[in-house]
């Protein structure tokens, strides 16, 4: 197996972990409150990341930890966006299906270029408009009930692609200078998120540890594998494959989410819901696949 194919397979594994995360959140919320769960998740992920990347964190330049005012401001926005994204995912699963949460969360690939156009006036690809139209039609079929109203959880889940897109944009700016180590910055953000979530849980909730072996297993898997190890896999393996391969692999996340919800939670969508989910997946593929380039490649092939 060549190195790129191995990297692609590892990214598929990480995407599978992300796909199961909504199922694990639903299981954990039976015993744990939302903010407490996020504190547990971030702090356990930090233990893994700290163990793997402690040398890079200790060697990180001062620019990673403190820099000029603009970069400090960008880091604060990135940290807040990350917090709101994860709170949206957790609270959203409380009030909608795991499958819906997975497909709505995957809309980041559409929100990011749209926000870049609004904020930075960066002209998006011409296919963005078509992909957005297909995605909105799919989301309507997936989320709207007979009264043409979405579930409250569907609306909450929109926080995930919204703030994930914002997180990606400001993090890209924050790490633009070579003195900033993006991995060390990611570890720092995980630690800060864990401490902030723990503080919020003490103020807003009554923190408690998982109350059963099943929830312990789900919470640890969520923190260690879905957060910590996935970060390690993405950081190490993405350098050995292309951006187009990685982005296309990541579009499998909602598919994994729906499959795990079907088998682990016995969750079923309506026929209309499955059709809407399929349209949303098509919209992601429209954004990520360079069809003209693929056609040219086929024409050149003997």
Can I get a quick summary?
By secondary structure, this protein is mainly α. It is 79% helix and 0% strand.
Description:
The structure is a single chain. Helix 1 packs across helix 5 and helix 1 packs antiparallel against helix 11. The chain is about 80% helix and about 0% strand. With about 300 residues, it is mainly alpha-helical.
Architecture blueprint of SSEs:
Layout: H1 3-28, H2 34-59, H3 62-65, H4 69-95, H5 98-105, H6 108-120, H7 127-143, H8 152-157, H9 159-174, H10 182-204, H11 213-237, H12 243-250, H13 253-264, H14 271-288, H15 291-300
Helix pairs in contact: 1-5, 1-11, 1-12, 1-13, 2-4, 2-10, 2-11, 4-9, 4-10, 5-13, 6-9, 7-14
Low-confidence stretches are none
Report the end-to-end length measured between terminal Cα atoms. Answer: 24 Å
Describe the global form.
Answer: globular
- Output the number of helix runs: 15
How would you characterize the largest beta sheet? none
Percent of residues in helical segments? Answer: over 70%
The total strand number stands at 0
Question: How big is the Rg?
Answer: 19 Å
Mean pLDDT: 81
Class by alpha and beta content: mainly alpha
DSSP strand (E) fraction? Answer: under 5%
- H/E series: HHHHHHHHHHHHHHH
Give me some keywords for this one:
302 residues, single chain, mainly alpha
């Amino acid at each position: 197996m060549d190195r790129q194919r191995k990297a692609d397979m590892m990214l598929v594994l990480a995407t599978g972990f992300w796909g199961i995360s909504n199922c694990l959140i639903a299981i954990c919320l039976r015993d744990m409150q939302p903010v407490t769960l996020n504190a547990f998740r971030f702090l356990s992920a930090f233990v893994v990341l700290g163990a793997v990347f402690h040398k890079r964190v200790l060697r990180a330049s001062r620019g990673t930890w403190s820099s000029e005012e603009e970069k400090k401001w960008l880091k604060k926005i990135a940290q807040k966006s990350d917090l709101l994204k994860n709170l949206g995912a957790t609270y959203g699963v409380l009030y909608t299906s795991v499958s819906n949460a997975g497909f709505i969360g995957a809309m980041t690939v559409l929100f990011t270029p749209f926000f870049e156009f609004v904020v930075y006036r960066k002209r998006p690809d011409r296919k963005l408009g078509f992909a957005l139209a297909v995605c909105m039609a799919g989301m309507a079929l997936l989320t709207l009930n007979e009264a043409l109203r979405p579930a409250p959880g569907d609306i909450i889940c929109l926080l995930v692609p919204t703030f994930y897109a914002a997180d990606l944009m400001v993090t890209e700016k924050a790490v633009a200078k070579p003195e900033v180590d993006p991995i060390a910055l990611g570890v720092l953000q995980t630690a800060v998120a864990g401490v902030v979530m723990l503080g919020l849980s003490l103020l807003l909730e009554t923190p408690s540890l998982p109350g059963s072996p099943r929830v312990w297993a789900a919470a640890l898997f969520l923190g260690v594998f879905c957060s910590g190890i996935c970060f390690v896999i993405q950081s190490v393996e993405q350098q050995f494959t292309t951006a187009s391969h990685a982005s296309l692999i990541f579009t499998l996340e909602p598919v994994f989410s729906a499959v795990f919800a079907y088998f682990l939670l016995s969750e079923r969508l309506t026929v209309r819901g499955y059709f809407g989910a399929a349209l949303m997946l098509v919209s992601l593929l429209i954004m990520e696949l360079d069809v003209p380039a693929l056609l040219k490649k086929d024409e050149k092939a003997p």
